[in-house]
Amino acid sequence: MPTFETNGGTLYYEDVGHGPPLVLLHGFPLSSDMWQPQRTALQADFRVITPDLRGMGRSGVPVTGYSMDVYAADVAALLNHLQLERVLLGGMSMGGYVVFAFLRRYRERVRGLILIDTQAAPDNEETRAKRSALIDKVRSEGAAAIADTSKMFSEDTQRTNPELVAQMTSIMQATAVDGIVGALTAMIERPDATAVLQETDVPALVVVGREDPLTPPDEAHAMQAALPHAELLVLDGAAHAANLEQPDIVNQAIRAWAAKIE
Q: What contacts 176, CB < 8 A, 6 or more positions away?
């Protein structure tokens, strides 16, 4: 398995295909396995690189030291390890929050952005309180406490694709408690990223499921408005995991968008 040491931890990643490097960052509390439809379909057009963020998947699980800036530093270290100067960088949900932190520190390394089911706005007080309560619950009950896919998938997907729902549940249940707690803390503490997007002068593709209850289409429209050069794709039949529910449409949108980047 491809791994390397970074910032006091071991980072696992997958690296497939040939072409412009495309780095995709997964959501919470998931792993790079959520990008399998993209790795399979896009490796003919891109070099697709999908790391497991620290504390999740097959990466190491530090007890402390989690923040969006630390996740972003891990991604920068991965690019250095792979000798990549500039990449197309995408993130889903929490992966998008890591993208924003990466832009704050390493903007010159980004050729284009893909933001899937995420938001630039920080947590409000109610959401912070819910995340804090979830930290206590996970510490007492384990990863099963966060293995809820009800908001990840549309009602149609939950009814017609139980295999996909079971796969997502399995990934969640396998996530280490310290990784879950670290990620929740990092999300609570993350700042507003709207100004970062306003200053990001690279092409962007914003994707959202029309039925996404966690980062709804209004948030996607707000990101498109903040970005100087952004396209927006709102997908029917998708909730918070649009790349898994409508993979063919998402993959084609990425190809078409990237073809316009010089």
A: 55, 56, 61, 143
**Whole-number pLDDT of residue 65:** 87
What do you get for the CA distance between the two ends of the chain, in Å?
33
pLDDT at 10 exceeding the cut of 90: yes
Listed by start position, the domains of the chain span 3-258
Q: Are 215 and 97 in contact (CB under 8 A)?
A: no
One-letter amino acid at 176 equals: A
Answer yes or no: are the C-beta atoms of 151 and 130 closer than 8 Å.
no
> Please, what is the Cα angle at 7 between 5 and 9, to 5 degrees?
50
CA distance 245 to 157: 7
> How many residues would you count in the chain?
262
Confidence of residue 257 (pLDDT cuts 50, 70, 90): very high
Q: Where would I find the H helices in the chain?
A: 36-42, 68-81, 94-106, 125-141, 155-160, 162-173, 177-189, 194-198, 217-226, 242-245, 247-258
- Confidence (pTM): 0.97
Rounded-to-integer distance, Cα 48 and Cα 6, Å: 20
User: Three-class SS of residue 172?
Assistant: helix
The CATH number, out of the four listed (3.40.630.30, 3.30.565.10, 3.30.70.590, 3.40.50.1820), of the domain defined by the range 3-258: 3.40.50.1820
CB 36, CB 29: distance < 8 Å:
no
Helix, coil or strand: residue 82: coil
Strand partners, 3: 12
CA nearest neighbour of 184 among 150, 134, 124: 134
